[in-house]
Design goal:
The chain has 386 residues and is of the alpha/beta class. The protein has twelve helices and nine strands. α10 links the parallel β7 and β8. α1 packs antiparallel against α3. Bound molecules: alpha-D-galactopyranose. It catalyses: Endohydrolysis of (1->4)-beta-D-xylosidic linkages in xylans.
C-alpha cells in the first residue's frame, strides 16, 4: 500500500478511537508530546518514525496480538513500517506438540501487517529458550537421536517459513548460539549437545530452501562487547566461508543508558560490515538501569522516577545511537524496538519482577518522550514525509 494511504488510514483510526489531541508537535519543545495520531482532519498529518527514517531503514516494533488493537495499533501504524511477532513465532508457542501447530496468534499479526502494508520480520526459528517440551525427547522420554532432532528442525523450519513466505521478508534463523563463557565458542544448548555445531548451518540451509528470497539473520545479545563480538565474528566468518546462506547479523540491542559507548557501537558495526554482512538492530530498548542478567527480588533502590538526569541521560543516549545508525546508512537494514511503549515492556518484569523501567520512545500513556524528539531532530528528517 502506498505510504500516504497508510498515513491517512492511521489518522482515520485515531479519529475512530477518539484519541484526544494534547497539542504540541513532533518538532517543538521538551516534554511529552502529542502522539501525532489525532489531527483536525485538515492539518497535514505529522510524520512518524518511519517517515523521518524513510531514506535510511525500516523502523519496526515487536508486537503481540494485544498490541494490534486499540490505541497501540494506531500508534504502530503511525510510527512504524515493520513488525516482529514478539513471542508467537517461537518454537514453543507456534509448535506446542510434535503434530500440532498453533498458527492463530501469528496469523492475526501477519494479517494486520498485510492489511496495512507493514513488513514482517520472522523471529525465530532455532533457539535454546521457549522450546516445546517434546522437542529434545524421544518417545520414551530420553534424549532424542541426532537424526530425529535434525529432521524435527527441518520440518519445523520448512512448515513455518513456507506458510509465511509471502509476508515475512527476513528471519532470525538462529538466536543466541554463542556462549557467554569466553572460553568456548558455542553455548552448551541441547542443539549443540545432540547435533553438534553443524545445527547452525543446517538451520540456515533449511530456511533458505523453504524461501530462497528471504533474508536470513543470526541474532544475538551483548554483541557490542568486543570479546563476545569476536566470537560471533568467528562463527559468522565460518558460515560465510562454507557458503551458508546468511544475509546478516541481528544485533538485539537490549542496551542501557550506561552502554555501549559510541566508540564501542561504531567498532561493532565496522567489524560486521567488514564481513560484508547486513546489520539489523532487532530488539532495541534502553534500560535506565545498568544491565543485569540474573533474576532477583525488588529492592528499595529500584524505585526511581523517570525525570531529571535519568531522562536527560536516556535522551542523550538515544540521540547518540540514532546518529550512529544514520551514519551507517546502507549497512543497517532495519531498526526494531522491543515492545511498543514503557507501559508494557518486558523490562518491567525482567530481571526484577515489578521494577518499573522506561526503555522506549513512548511513555506509559503512549506519548512521545523527549528521546523521540532527539532521534527525529536531524537535518533532512521528515523532509520528504507526507
Ligand atoms: C531475547 C529474545 C527475544 C525476547 C527477549 C526478551 O532477546 O531474542 O525473543 O525473548 O530476549 O523479551
Amino acid at each position: 500500500m502506498h505510504l500516504s494511504a497508510r498515513v491517512i488510514m492511521a489518522t482515520g483510526i485515531s479519529l475512530v478511537l477518539g484519541l484526544a489531541s494534547c497539542g504540541g508537535s513532533a518538532q517543538s519543545g521538551k516534554g511529552r508530546q502529542d502522539s501525532g495520531l489525532s489531527g483536525s482532519g485538515l492539518a497535514a498529518p505529522q510524520p512518524g518514525l518511519k517517515d523521518y527514517y524513510k531514506d535510511y531503514f525500516p523502523v519496526g516494533v515487536a508486537v503481540n496480538s494485544r498490541n494490534i488493537k486499540g490505541p497501540e495499533a494506531a500508534l504502530i501504524l503511525k510510527e512504524y513500517n515493520s513488525v516482529t511477532p514478539e513471542n508467537d513465532m517461537k518454537m514453543g508457542p507456534v509448535h506446542p506438540a510434535a503434530d500440532q501447530y498453533n498458527f492463530a496468534p501469528v496469523d492475526s499479526i501477519v494479517a494486520f501487517a498485510r492489511r496495512h502494508g507493514l513488513k514482517v520480520r520472522g523471529h525465530n526459528l532455532c533457539w535454546h529458550e521457549q522450546t516445546p517440551d517434546w522437542l529434545f525427547k524421544d518417545a520414551g522420554g530420553g534424549e532424542v537421536a541426532k537424526s530425529v532432532l535434525l529432521s524435527r528442525l527441518r520440518d519445523h523450519i520448512r512448515t513455518v517459513v513456507s506458510r509465511y513466505k509471502k509476508d515475512v521478508y527476513c528471519w532470525d534463523v538462529v538466536n543466541e548460539a554463542i556462549s557467554d563463557d569466553s572460553t568456548e565458542l558455542l553455548r552448551k544448548s541441547p542443539w549443540l549437545k545432540i547435533i553438534g555445531p553443524s545445527f547452525i548451518d543446517s538451520a540456515f540451509w533449511y530456511a533458505h530452501r523453504a524461501d530462497p528470497k528471504a533474508e536470513l539473520y543470526y541474532n544475538d545479545y551483548n554483541v557490542v562487547f568486543p570479546e563476545k563480538a569476536k566470537r560471533i565474528y568467528t562463527l559468522l566468518k565460518g558460515l560465510k566461508q562454507r557458503g551458508v546462506p546468511i544475509t546478516g547479523i541481528g544485533i538485539q540491542a537490549h542496551w542501557s543508558v550506561y552502554q555501549p559507548t559510541e566508540q564501542q557501537l561504531r567498532s561493532t558495526l565496522d567489524l560486521f560490515k567488514s564481513l560484508g554482512l547486513k546489520i539489523q538492530i532487532t530488539e532495541l530498548d534502553v534500560s535506565v538501569f545498568p544491565w543485569e542478567k540474573n533474576k532477583r527480588a525488588l529492592l528499595p533502590k529500584d524505585q526511581i522516577r523517570y525525570q531529571g538526569q535519568v531522562e536527560d541521560r536516556q535522551t542523550a543516549f538515544y540521540k547518540m545511537i540514532f546518529k550512529v545508525f544514520r551514519d551507517y546508512k546502507g549497512v543497517i537494514s532495519g531498526v526494531t524496538f522491543w515492545n511498543v511503549s514503557d507501559r508494557d515492556t518486558w523490562l518491567n518484569y525482567y530481571p526484577v519482577e515489578g521494577r518499573k523501567n522506561y526503555p522506549l520512545l513512548f511513555d506509559s500513556a503512549l506519548k512521545r518522550k523527549p528521546a523521540y524528539q532527539a532521534v527525529t531532530d536531524f537535518k533532512g528528517a521528515g523532509a520528504t514525509a507526507p
